[in-house]
Structure formats: structure tokens, C-alpha cells
Design brief:
Oligomer: single chain
Helix content: 40-55%
Number of strands: 14
Order of helices and strands: EHEHEHEEHEHEHEHEHEHHHEEEEHH
CATH superfamily of the largest domain: Response regulator
Structural class: alpha/beta
CATH class of the largest domain: Alpha Beta
Largest sheet: 7 strands, mixed
Distance between the termini: 60 Å
Shape: globular
Strand order of the largest sheet: 7-6-8-9-10-13-14
CATH topology of the largest domain: Rossmann fold
């Protein structure tokens, strides 16, 4: 490379989902710390904080590409933000590295997806829940594409299982008034709850569910769990102490996961910052995105996006998620499935795991929607 390459980093570290943004920002920062510690000096990050403002994501992406010459952007948390910046990324033939779980049904040659799609989180989560708790859930979600699409797919899975959805409610991201939803849940008595809320809405909902469980043991986590695909360790600090204990979350990584790769990663993290709290799957995914981007730019001696993408698609990448391979038709990474239960230390105990699953963002495989366990559900 004739001059330093710059990688844009586009995460909101403030606003309603700031805890997730700070975690993602931290993952990228740690990847660059390791790169610089081993003598790397040809690639630099440029950070832009949209502060949770959807319109600011587009301005941030424009600034990173136009003003700073970034041909790669690692970032966005919500699907709304991702969809806001992708047309600009396409226009400039850049590459977006998306490191958050999302609702699937998307593939873009100008994006690499490292956060997981439904066959890697929601479907195996239902494989666990339905045989144990039944097929009569209640669905709650944020009032935008993540909540809508995840609940739409959940309805389809429940129908395939011969069950029924007892209720479905949505809240704006910053809405914390959950009393009517809790009252409806108490009346309808579902077998479990799928929580696709994000930020303050999710935190208020978890706190209210604990109060409901204290009044009626039928709603304690062991009897009627609240399950998510997007709750992060960093967010547990935002939830009232103890309110989330026992609830479930599907992810591709947990801070407590017992693997040789994670033990080594944790040791490096603690050496870097002894006071660092538990890190999440978004931290790990953003770290992985930055590490892979750096490695591909170095290997190709250029930050030209098509060449970098082709290099990423050309091989398997060992790391925190096991042997990660990318599908060259959809640009999605293979990822493990882990199921975590919130513990008293504001972290997760891993109670189930699977080896990396190939991504199927459009659920084209027959097994993705109609599996034997669904037909045999309670």
C-alpha cells in the first residue's frame, strides 16, 4: 500500500441503544490496539458517532467515504440504520461490515454479514423452547423492521408447530410504558415470550416481567421464560439489578463461553484493560470484522473493496466463532448457536451450543422452516 488505508467505524455510543454501540466501538478499538501492538501502521480507524439519530447515519457514512476516503465501514446496529447507509455504500462501491444479529432476507454484494440471521439464532432458539415450554408464545417487538420481521417469522414457525400466538404487541424504541402488555400477558398466560424489543423498552419489560413473576409463579423464568436474540451483556448493566436473572438469549458468542479461543481472547482483553466488564457477541463480532478487514487489506496490499471481499470469501477464518466461512452467494458468515441464561453476575451461563451453522438468510433450505421438532411440539 502506498499510503495508509482508513476504515470507517459507524456506531452510536449514546442514545437508546448506546450500550450496544459502545460494545461494538470497543470491539473495533481492541482489534486496532492489537494491530498497532504488533507493529501495524498502514491502516487506521476513523470513528463517527451518529448518537442514535437515523439521519445522522447517512451523513456519517457520507463523511467517512467522502471526507476521509474510507472504502470500508464497520457499523450500524439497527436494520433501519443499515438500510439507510447501504445505498450510499453501493453508490461508492464500498463495503459495509455488519456485525449485529438481524432478521435476514437480505444479501448485498457491498456488505459482509457477521452478526447472524434467523437460521442461526431464532430457529434453533425455538428448537429449544417449543419442546420444553409449548407452542403458545406471546410476541413483543420494537416498532421497526427487526421487531416486525422477527415476529412474522415466529408466527410462521409457530403455525408449522401446530401452535398459536396468543398476542403480539409493539413499542417505539424509547417507550417504557409496558403495563398494558404485561396485563395482557398475565391474562393470556403464554408458554413463553419472544422479546424483540430493544433498548429502554426491553429493559422496562424485563423489570415488569420480574414483578409479574413475583406476583404469580407461573411467570417465573423457569415456567415462562422471556427469550431474546439481541440481549447483550453490556445491556444487563442497564436493567434493574436482578430483574433479568433466569431469562434466555440466543447469540453466537457469550463472554463466559468455555473454549480455548475465548480463554486466550479473554486473557488478552484483561491485559489490555483489567477493569473491562463482560463483553458481548456484538463486541466479538465487531472485533472480528475489524480483524478480518485488516487481514484482508494487508494480504491484498490494497483496500480495494472487491478484492478484499473476494479474499474474505476465499477461505475459512479460525477465531472466536470457530472456523468461520462465508457463503459466496450471500456474503454471510457461518456462526455457532449458543443459548445463554442470565445469571446473578450480569452475564450468561451457556446452557446449550452448536457448531457453526451455515447462514441461510432467505430460509431456502427445507429444514429451515419445517423441522421434525416443530411437528412434534406440545
Amino acid at each position: 500500500m502506498q499510503q495508509s488505508a482508513k476504515i470507517g467505524v459507524l456506531y452510536s455510543t449514546t442514545g437508546p441503544y448506546g450500550a450496544m454501540g459502545r460494545d461494538a466501538h470497543g470491539g473495533v478499538a481492541f482489534a486496532f490496539h492489537e494491530y498497532h501492538a504488533r507493529g501495524g501502521d498502514k491502516i487506521e480507524p476513523v470513528f463517527y458517532d451518529p448518537q442514535g439519530d437515523l439521519a445522522a447515519y447517512l451523513e456519517g457514512a457520507r463523511s467517512l467515504i467522502r471526507d476521509h476516503g474510507c472504502r470500508h465501514i464497520i457499523g450500524t446496529i439497527t436494520s433501519a440504520a443499515r438500510k439507510e447507509v447501504l445505498p450510499l455504500v453501493e453508490k461508492h462501491d464500498s463495503l459495509l461490515w455488519y456485525a449485529c444479529p438481524y432478521e435476514g432476507f437480505e444479501a448485498n454484494e457491498n456488505a459482509l454479514y457477521i452478526g447472524g440471521c434467523p437460521n442461526q439464532h431464532l430457529i434453533p432458539l425455538f428448537e429449544h423452547l417449543i419442546p420444553r415450554y409449548g407452542a403458545r408464545p406471546y410476541l413483543v417487538g420494537a416498532n421497526y423492521v427487526w421487531g416486525w420481521e422477527m415476529n412474522r417469522l415466529a408466527r410462521e414457525l409457530i403455525a408449522n408447530a401446530g401452535g398459536s400466538v396468543l398476542g403480539e404487541r409493539y413499542l417505539p424504541i424509547e417507550e417504557t410504558g409496558v403495563e398494558r402488555i404485561i396485563a395482557d400477558i398475565a391474562e393470556k398466560r403464554p408458554s413463553f415470550i419472544l422479546n424483540n424489543l430493544i433498548g429502554p423498552s426491553s429493559y422496562a419489560f424485563l423489570e415488569a416481567m420480574r414483578e409479574l413473576g413475583n406476583r404469580d409463579p407461573a411467570f417465573l423464568p423457569e415456567n415462562c421464560p422471556v427469550a431474546s436474540c439481541d440481549l447483550q451483556e453490556s445491556e444487563l448493566e442497564e436493567v434493574e439489578d436482578g430483574a433479568a436473572i433466569g431469562q434466555l438469549c440466543a447469540a453466537s458468542y457469550f463472554n463466559t463461553f468455555n473454549s480455548v479461543e475465548n480463554q486466550d481472547f479473554q486473557a488478552r482483553l484483561r491485559a489490555f484493560d483489567p477493569d473491562l466488564g463482560p463483553v458481548s457477541s456484538i463486541f466479538a463480532s465487531a472485533y472480528t470484522a475489524a480483524t478480518l478487514c485488516i487481514a484482508a487489506i494487508e494480504a491484498r496490499s490494497t483496500d480495494e473493496p472487491a478484492g478484499v471481499r473476494d479474499h474474505i470469501l476465499s477461505r475459512t477464518w479460525p477465531g472466536l466463532f470457530g472456523d468461520m466461512a462465508f457463503d459466496n452467494k450471500t456474503n454471510h458468515a457461518s456462526l455457532p448457536f449458543l443459548l445463554g441464561r442470565v445469571n446473578a453476575t450480569r452475564s450468561f451461563d451457556v446452557i446449550a451450543s452448536r457448531l457453526p451453522l451455515a447462514a441461510d438468510p432467505y430460509l431456502t433450505a427445507a429444514s429451515s422452516r419445517a423441522q421434525p421438532w416443530l411437528r412434534m411440539a406440545k
